[in-house]
Amino acid sequence: MFRKLPGDEAQHLVTTTPDTAVVFRPAVVQTPAIITLVIFVWRMLAGLVRLLWRHPIASAITAVPGVTWTLYGWSWALLTIFGLLAVPIGWALIHRASFLRLIGWRLLAFWRLTWVYRRHWQPVMIISGLGRHLRGRDYLPHLGKVTCTSWADLVTVRMLTGQSVKDWADRTDHLAHGFGARSCRVSVARAGRLLLVFPRHDPLATPLPAVPVPDEASVGPVEVGTCEDGRPWRLKVHGTHVLVAGATGAGKGSILWSAIRGLLPAVRAGLVQIWALDPKRMELSFGRDLFGDRYAATPEHCAELLEAAVVVMQERADRFAGLRRTHTPTVEDPFVLVVVDEVAFLTAYQADKGLKLRICAALATLTTQGRAVGVGVLAALQDPRKEVMNIRNLFPDKIALRLDESEQVDMVLGDGARDRGALADHISPIPAQGAGVGYVRLETSPDPIRVRAAYVSDTDIRAMVEAVTA
Ligand SMILES: Nc1ncnc2c1ncn2[C@@H]1O[C@H](COP(=O)(O)OP(=O)(O)OP(=O)(O)O)[C@@H](O)[C@H]1O
């Protein structure tokens, strides 16, 4: 009976049973008013200290004019307000980046925390099912820190004990709409804590021009576009295999061409060879001269070229065996990147069964054994179903551009990728807004990253051909 209960529940605690001699009455303990007052004052002080600690700048900006008014009158308070406004405005005009980093984003985070997240936290948690209302008491996940970047709010959350990441990943739609964002992405910050990303606007909404050809010859991660957080998107091609999946018009070509463009100095230096398989003859044929005689369009020729790559790979494996375990590109042993546009033409839609078997076997051999000896595959594909591409799991790195169906996202990026926010089926079909936009899930991280590939125009490709053939 002396169990601690929420106040509004005491009235429901009727333990009498009709027609029995024994009647249990709930014991109502009256808390002395002074204890209640002390608790409220203590909570207020703790809240004040927490506010000052977490938001010193915002607190100072509000407190200073108030104190000045009390001590020196309204005219001085007005002057202080003008002074306080003039400093940040001047700073923002002179050096916007440092102003935003040190003041702007913090103020915005304070505003978003109080006005958006704290205000809506309880209803969104209860209605989405992430919080519980039990016996008159709300059990809510703890809303932690809110940080603002140029494009998104990053919200840390402490989950309720017993909740899983999947509970949150399944409710990203509720969270996004509940807090007025377009989408929400969930990732694990540490045990029991999550990081929710709510984009405020889309930094990838406009097409990006082709990335300038690098000055140095390198096979290192090639800059092919921009990540959502504004960092350059560098695609690793050496030491891995990459599969790019996207519906027709999703912009697969821009990834293939951006990768080739980034490798151009290394091609000129003889450190990289690009072998092109172009069964559709619509994409890579445009820069045919870049590939010399390592270009194939007919299925027979494609099978031969793939088998030639397997021979190179096996010959290197024989030579490297017992001597080295990784490949360093040299003029004698350059990195061979096999670029395949619409790989399904060769693996699934190929009528000649013999050819199909040869091509599948060569591709499977390259993708299982090639990366250690400097042979990589970069393949593009429209339809990611297993019956179309049964070796898709042999590609360590995958990119999902716009896809037609939501189930296709996990087929490309692996289980749970869509729940974690890879909404590739929501990418706009309008080329200016959505072509080249996609999600990347790297071998090393379960969290998908939203990216946009730079658009390599026909003029850019012509210039690339001229630069290599000159
Ligand atoms: N990165 C990009 N940024 C902006 N627009 C792009 C980008 N990539 C492609 N586009 C536009 O979208 C159109 C379709 O692109 P692309 O042909 O590369 O798509 P795809 O996925 O290769 O299609 P398909 O499988 O039918 O060949 C292009 O003509 C171009 O106008």
Automatic annotation (TrEMBL):
Residues the entry annotates as binding ATP: 246-253
Keyword terms: ATP-binding, Membrane, Nucleotide-binding, Transmembrane, Transmembrane helix
Protein's name according to its UniProt entry: FtsK/SpoIIIE domain-containing protein
One Pfam family from the record: FtsK_SpoIIIE
InterPro entries linked: FtsK/SpoIIIE/SftA, FtsK_dom, P-loop_NTPase
Lineage per the UniProt record: Bacteria, Bacillati, Actinomycetota, Actinomycetes, Streptosporangiales
Domain of life: Bacteria
UniProt organism field: Streptosporangium fragile
Residue span, FtsK domain: 230-410
TM region(s), chain numbering: 33-53, 73-94
